[in-house]
Write a structure and sequence with these properties.
Layout lengths: L1 H53 L1 E7 L9 H7 L4 E3 L5 E3 L2 E6 L5 E6 L23 E5 L4 E6 L6 H4 L15 E9 L2 E9 L6 E7 L2 H9 L5 E5 L12 E6 L3 E7 L9 H9 L31 H14 L5 E5 L4 H13 L4 E5 L9 E7 L7 H4 L14 H10 L5 H18 L2 E5 L2 E6 L1
Parallel strand pairs: 1-10, 1-11, 14-15, 14-16
Antiparallel strand pairs: 2-3, 4-5, 5-7, 6-7, 8-9, 9-10, 11-18, 12-18, 13-16, 13-17
Helix pairs in contact: 5-6, 9-10
Amino acid sequence: MGFTVQKNIRYYIWLIKGIFDRYSRIILASFALALILIVIGVRYGKFIWNRIENDRQIIGVVGSFTPSNLPISIQKLISLGLTEVSDTGEVLPALATSWEVSDDGKKYTFHLRTDQYWHDAKKFTAFDVNYNLRDVEFVPINETDLVVKLNDAFTPLPSFLSKALFRKGLIGLGAYKIAAIKLKGDDVSYLSLKPMVANLPQVEVKFYASEASAKTAFKLGEINVLDEIITPTPFTGWKNVKVKENVKLNQFVGIFLNNNDDLLKSKELRQGLNFALEKPEKNRIATPISSKSWAYTNRVKQYEKDLDQAKKLLSDYVESSKSATLTLSTFNEFLPLAQTVAAAWTSLGVTTQVKVETGVADNYQALLGVVDIPSDPDQYNLWHSTQTATNISHYASPKIDKLLESGRKESDQEKREKIYFDFQRYLVEDSPAVFLFHPTTYTISR
């Protein structure tokens, strides 16, 4: 048996030697190539992987969106508006190169670019502009000139025309076109975006009903970018994961006080509630206009925490309404903040309970939430007394009404700036809401 084993071993040695003698060059070349690939992999593997990842982004987005109301960030990838608005609120050319406005402010003439084509290669002209704005008429003069007629002067019009234009089928004019779209019922569940410009990555977008499900998808590797989530945990401590903070300058978090409520119609009480709170230093705002806007001013009443002043302003209420309870409504993401606010008010004798809502109800007393800030400082919809559907604090002031009406008709920016400075000063003095901060979201990427 030992002889047989030795014989077998000797046979395999001869066999291997024969193969090596015959194919030695190929074997040595293959070995050298493998060694080179290993060295390249060790030294440049991360770079190569990053290039692959950069050529394909799979983004997770939280929320329900139909094809007609995709997130603004995605709309801007797919198409352009006549204008675009900077972070400071300045209106800049986009599809329009320039525009003029008539002396009475009721007629705008836009001059359009001649080098733009839709994703199906059709040339963009003035006849393609399809905005649907109430009491606004769009009249193409020729392919490159467009007249916009209004019933009344409306200075914020150019900022409204920053909305991306689309043709049927979500055909756009931007750096990306839609290559594929999947729906789940009426909502979009998946988008594939193909770059129309060199050196841009392929983009896929997957939509998730909740932040928790989107985070699970990131953990499982289904997506490599998690866009604009509210809480970055547990990713802040992960290796090879980048956490980017996004300050939402186009939103503010505040507490809206129902001015129709028997309790909160008192200006002194609203001011007392305002003085009772410690305002966060991070991204703090003093007014409802974006802190980066050309129209923003900080020269208003600041409502720094002042317990003595708060007690003084709240004293009449505390003495006469010991058994009454104030309800602070909010949403899940703001529950911890709402509980802090409720504790501060309760400690001063204004017993406050927190109620978690799924939507905005008309009969709330105080509401803690986030509000979108218009790109133009015009805030007619939020604060004018006639805007019953959007003026959620039910605030009414003849002085504020007049300022808002004047601000949207005045074409001189210096005069507009003064109008909105006065608007902020008088509004904050009345304290129809407690203005807190710009919210922060986070983008998680590998």
